[in-house]
Every structure is written in C-alpha cells, then in structure tokens.
Amino acid sequence: MAHQATLYRMVTPDHVCPFGLKARDLLLRRGYQLDDRHLGSREQTDRFLAEHGVDTTPQIFIDGERIGGYDNLRRYVGQNVPAHEHTSYTPVLAIFATTLLATLAWQWGDGNPLLATQTLARFIALSMCVLAIMKLRDLESFTNQFLGYDLLAQRVVRYAYVYPFAEAFAGIGMLSGVMPLLVALVALFIGTMGAVSVIKAVYVDRRELRCACVGGDSNVPLGFVSLTENLMMVAMGLWLLGGIVLH
Q: Are 125 and 174 spatial neighbours (Cβ–Cβ below 8 Å)?
C-alpha cells in the first residue's frame, strides 16, 4: 500500500516555488499517494508558517509526520544532499566535457581527423572562451576570489579585472588565427603568471583556497584544475610561437 504524502507549496500568480515542484516530482516518482496543497498567497503562506513553526516552504508530511523541506525529503528517501559549501569539480567537468564534444563535432564536421594537433588546439581555445565567460558573468565576484591567490593581482589590483578579458582575447585569437604573435604573448603571460601563483599558494604555502577559474562563486578547490587551465594557455602560447618561427 502506498504511503500518504501531503505537500504544502507556494503557487501564486507571481511565483511558483521551484523546490515545491521538485518535491512533488520526487514524491510521485517514489510512488507516494500525494495530496498536493497550494498556498495561494503570501498571507496564506505566512499563516501556514506560523501555525507549524517553520520558516520556509515547501513542507512535506508523510503519513502524518512532518518531514520538512525539500532537502529533508531527499534525505528521507535516501538521496545525498551535499552541503552548500561542499567543494565540487562538477562545473569544471561540465565545461571541459562540453568543449571537448564541441571540438570533436567541429573536427568531424570539417572532415578532419579527430586525433590531431588541431583538435587539441581547438579544445583549449574553446575551453578558454567558456572559462572567460564564466568569470565575466560576475566580474566583481571573480576578482574577490582571484585576489586571494594571484601574485600579480595582489600587487596590481586592476589586473584581476583585465584577466578574464585577456583570457577571452587569447581564446578567440587562437580560433581566428588573427594576430598570432600578440595572442601567443598574452596566453604565455597570463598562463605563466597564473601557474606560478597557483603553485605558490597550493603547493608551497599549502593554503586551502577556492579556484576562481569558473567564476567567483564556485566551490572548486584551487589546485590541479586551475594549474591545468594555466598550463594549457602556456602550451598554446608556445605552440603559436613555434608556428610563427617555423614560418
């Protein structure tokens, strides 16, 4: 026999609670017999909160017992609920996986071999562009985190604001082939400075910091990922310089 679940969630003309929708979906997927009750106004919601002595909605009751909000429901059904401050490499993996697939699709569409130097070059350039976008979407937040470990930015604060633009310039320049010498020098400079800063902060000073590589609000730990990003830029800069010398 299915267990009875009662869900109280905000559904007003101006707002539909996303966590209420997630709770509803989870309960139905788990086979609960659901009584879905809408709180149709701010006043009705406030009365409900006061009556039950809670601060937020949604609120879930199962077989008459209050479980709590959406996170509590997830714990109740055995799902993992990471802490809000929990470090995670998910954003980086999502970016690199997407840019890699996009690069392979690009190579395939052009009729080029998938395993080629050009594939790596395009992958690095696309990754730099996307990483720059992640930083630029909240420049102030990025600079706050970047200033915590970048050696040059700590001396010249404006460099923290320039860095994402320089990374975007280098990535776009690599894709376009325009001004290869300037692009190579920019990539080498910001990549080398970044790598030195990460090595000092993480591997010399042993500091536990968050990486600003995917934006200032990320929980990605500073270390391997940021170092890889910077070394990729150094590699691309050297590759471009090598091409210029050979020609």
A: yes
